[in-house]
Amino acid sequence: MYYFCISKVYKPKQNMKHMKFFFLIFVSGSLLWAIQSCKSVQDAKDNISSAVDFANAETEFSGAFDVTDDINQSDGKIKKGSGYILPSGAIFTWVDSVMDADGIKYDLDFGPLGTTVPYGLLCRDGKYRAGKLHVAVSKPYSTIGCAVTVTAASGDEYHSGIGATMTKIEGVLSITRSATETLDVSISGGKVTFAGKTASFQGTKTITRTAGSGTPGAWGDEFTINGSGSGVNSDGDSYTWQINTPLIKRLQLGCARTFVKGVIEIKNTTASTALSVDFDPLKNEACDLTARATIGKRTFDFEVR
After folding, report:
1. Region of residue 6 (left: phi > 0; alpha: psi -120 to 50; beta: else)
2. What value does the mean pLDDT take over residues 89-113?
3. Could you give the 3-state DSSP secondary structure of residue 178?
4. Measured distance CA(7)–CA(5) in Å, rounded
5. In DSSP terms, which residues pair with 291 in a beta bridge?
6. pLDDT tens figures, 154-207
7. Among 38, 46, 114, 169, which residue carries the largest CB count within 10 Å?
8. Pairing of strands 159-161, 275-278
9. For the chain, what is the radius of gyration of the CA atoms?
């Protein structure tokens, strides 16, 4: 009886110890789950910010390539209006018109941004543009090894967008023809400013024309684009980007403002999970501005600016 009583006295204390132990495990597990959930949400938020900024930057730098490629295909023999991207209101100025040892140079001026909607000058590809671009071409554009630079400095006030909203673009496109229908492109010092917030962008791409080689100018052409690079989003977070499924750009009415297909992987350097951006979320190659960001099981549709 003596030992029985002792056992009866201490059993509740042992049960309490077990309960406290399991309670601590439960609390620790809950906290760990909460921390991981918060991190997951933060990763998604950070990556989505990078995705939106990258989609905007890639679209607008691609637009700067398109309008100069349209002119360069005729070696600077400028044509405007139907069949070409450049509108009649844009001003083309020769800096050096003689295709000699140092090539040709020209400026494009789309005029001031303006103070009323729509801002800028409407071009055939559906984009509104304002400000200046400076272009240098080393040799005839179709020649293997031809090198092109397209420059927009801060003071050039080059903007592109949908007219109601515009993005300021700065940086240098360096383009080299590596094959008859292939151009290697690098973006350096890329910067986009939208609604007072700035993001940076850089990388290398390979652009291959897959349709339209038999027609003058770039209008009607189709391109596939591969590449990779890095950037800093408008929140100040660094990220990397990689084109996993080639982007498709179709220079046709209604389609030319952004890509009709392609998937890019984006990952913030501080995030544990990457995010994908699909420019064709409905798998129909629609000529719209809709893209879908996916991280894990979460999706977020947005409109490319």
Report:
1. alpha
2. 92
3. strand
4. 5
5. 302
6. 999 999 999 999 999 999 999 999 999 999 999 999 999 999 999 999 999 999
7. 169
8. unpaired
9. 27
* Model confidence at 31: pLDDT above 80: no
Please answer whether residues 103 and 179 qualify as being in contact, where contact means their C-beta atoms are separated by less than 8 angstroms.
no
pTM, whole model, 2 decimals? 0.83
CB contact at 8 A, 240 and 266: yes
* Length of the chain (residues): 305
* pLDDT over threshold 70, residue 14: no
Please say whether the beta carbons of 204 and 184 come within 8 A.
yes
Closest by CA to 156, choosing from 97, 117, 113, is 113
Q: Compute, in degrees rounded to 10, the torsion defined by CA atoms 199, 277, 174, 171.
A: -10
Q: 């064709």: which residue's tokens?
A: 280
| Neighbour-count burial for 273-295, b at 16+ CB within 10 Å, e otherwise | ebbbbbbbbeeeeeebbebbbbb
Could you tell me which residues are beta bridge partners of residue 49?
A: none
CA distance to 25, 195, 212, 283, 299, per residue, from 286 (Å):
52, 27, 20, 8, 19
